[in-house]
Write a structure and sequence with these properties.
The chain is mainly alpha-helical. Helix content is about 40%, strand content about 10%. The strands form 3 sheets. A two-stranded antiparallel sheet has the order 1-2.
């Protein structure tokens, strides 16, 4: 009998470090930017516009940052990654929209972005300071975090063939799902 191939092959799950994907936590990064106020704080310092199809430039910048964290090396990669995560983040930002957003960032806008980031970072540190816990072994930016509970989250691709409507290949061109584990 021949070896099964394709969708009918049974796969075993092993902890060998293969088949891992790095974007299981992308939604956490995107939501963190929103929850800490970074996305809304960036909006007034970036070009505004109106009309059908105008994208909030703060969302464009945050989406690009998440795509870079996920491994995008150029604007086409960023657009592909966003398309892959469209169910989580909404409509994909085109590479031309991202290019126009970046082109509008002169030295004055970059200085404003730096001030916004500093303000949001101070806010996050104040929230951490109010928290009674911390990481006993961790020092970040000269601050010792102690008594925190750390939940390490990760995911691995579990391949599965799918002919279902709306099924799309993963970033690594496979079909499947990647459940989060903590």
């Amino acid at each position: 009998m021949s070896e099964p191939t394709g969708w009918d092959r049974r796969l075993s799950v092993v902890a060998d470090g293969k088949g891992l994907i790095g974007h299981a936590g992308a939604v956490l990064l995107r939501r963190l930017a929103d929850r800490t106020g970074l996305t809304s704080a960036l909006a007034p310092v970036l070009p505004a516009g109106t009309g059908a199809g105008w994208r909030d430039r703060a969302v464009v910048v945050v989406q690009l940052a998440v795509a870079i964290v996920l491994g995008a090396a150029n604007l086409s990669d960023a657009e592909q990654l966003q398309a892959h995560h469209q169910g989580l983040f909404g409509a994909t930002v085109s590479d031309s929209t991202t290019r126009r957003t970046l082109a509008a960032m002169d030295a004055e806008v970059l200085a404003k972005i730096a001030r916004v980031r500093a303000r949001v970072r101070r806010h996050v540190w104040s929230l951490l300071h109010l928290r009674p816990g911390g990481f006993p072994w961790l020092t970040i930016a000269g601050k010792h975090l102690h008594r925190w509970v750390v939940i390490d989250m990760d995911a691995t691709i579990i391949t599965a063939a799918s002919k279902k409507q709306g099924a799309a290949a993963t970033w690594k061109k496979s079909f499947g799902f990647h459940p989060l584990a903590a």
